[in-house]
Structure formats: structure tokens, C-alpha cells
Amino acid sequence: MDIKHYYEEKGQGENLVLLHGNGENSGYFYYQLEEYSKHYHVYAPDTRGHGRTPRGTAPFSISQFADDLKVFLDEKCIEKAHILGFSDGANIAMVFALRYPQYVDKLILNGGNLNGVGVKARVQLPIILGYRIASLFAKKSDGAKANAEMLGLMVNDPSLNPAQLASIRAETLVIAGTKDMIKDSHTRLIARSIPKSRLEIIEGDHFIAANRHEIFDPIVLDFLKS
């Protein structure tokens, strides 16, 4: 393992891991860390190359981040955990649940997508354009290279199909906002494709965990405790 994750940790009880989105860090879950730690032992790591976790030399991909998560859990001697992923964190959580099902208790997928087609065009097209421009300058500029890698996560990753989700055995909550950047039909496809899933759509945008935490958090806690 070529990196050590920075992480926030708080609370006691069953393990709950929070996975942030692209270009963010564990600070995104400020409200959740405070609220969920009243009931669970919460870990909120910064993903490779995000926040205070170094980039390292391994591939910069959702697949690698899922493998990184396994190493993180092993380091903490965590054999099983509830996992809540937001955006790219949800994508990491899906790949992780498929690859390492024995580690997953309950799964919460907030604003995840199976591929770039699941993102609304008005959001995805500028990302694709930015990725292409950054890629042109990547060999000449470290900043452009880093930007290309980050945008590439949303252009090239993830690459899942609905049929794969049928093998997820964890009880799953799929949750998104009414004005999410992920297509509503795509969110519903994810929920339909996971056998033991529950779907919640709440008023708000992609960032409902931060902006509508007073609604988001009780739904998540009710699911975890049910």
C-alpha cells in the first residue's frame, strides 16, 4: 500500500464508514459525523488524492479506491461495516460491495451512477470538455494533469451495468434529490437492480446530505436501525 489515509473518527458501536464525492474530502460529512456518531463508530476517510490523503503512485480510479478501502478497513481491524457513499463515494461503495461483500453490512448510496450516461447532459458535457482540455496540457503541467485525473473519474468511471448489481446482497438504501445531477431514471434503475433495496427521493439537489441534513439524516438512521 503506497498511501496512508487521513480520516476522521468519532463515536462507539457498530462501524459506519462515510465516503465523500469527487474533489471533496471527509469534511463534506460534517453534519453526519456529529449526528451518526451518537449511534455508531463513524469513520470518514479522505480518498486517495483528496483532502489530506496523498495521491500515491497507484491508478487514480474508482476500482483502486475500492481496493484502498479494503486496506483501510483491514488496517483498522474492521471486519464488517455499514457504508454510506455520496456521489463518487457511492460509486466506490458499489464496486466495493461487489468485490468485497463480506465487509458490507448495510449500504447507503446517495447520488451514485453506474456510468457517465447516468449524469444529466447539462452537467456531463462541460465535464467532458474540461477533461479533454486538461488532458491536452497534462504532460506540460502538473496542475492540468491533476485536473485531468479528477475530471477523468467522472468521464471514464465508473463502468458498471445493472445486471452486476443483482449480486449485491446487502440491504441497500438508494437516496437522491429531486433536482439531482443524476437522472431520476438512472437512480431508479440502480434501486431496481439491487435485490434488497429501498428508494428515497427527497426535495433538493445533489448535495442533500449537506444542504438537507435535517431530512437526510433521519432517513438514513431509520434505515440503519430498521
Task: Characterise the protein shown here.
This protein is of the alpha/beta class and about 230 residues long. The chain has two domains: about 5-115 and about 160-225, Alpha/Beta hydrolase fold, catalytic domain (Rossmann fold), CATH 3.40.50.1820; about 115-155, no CATH class. The chain has nine helices and seven strands. It has helices at about 30-35, 60-75, 90-100, 120-135, 140-155, 160-165, 185-195, 210, 215-225; strands at about 5-10, 15-20, 40-45, 80-85, 105-110, 170-175, 195-200. A seven-stranded mixed beta sheet has the order 1-3-2-4-5-6-7, sandwiched between helices. Helix 1 (about 30-35) links the parallel strand 2 (about 15-20) and strand 3. Helix 2 packs across helix 3 and helix 4 (about 120-135) runs antiparallel to helix 5 (about 140-155). It is globular and about 50 Å long. The protein starts with 6 loop residues before the first strand and ends with a helix.
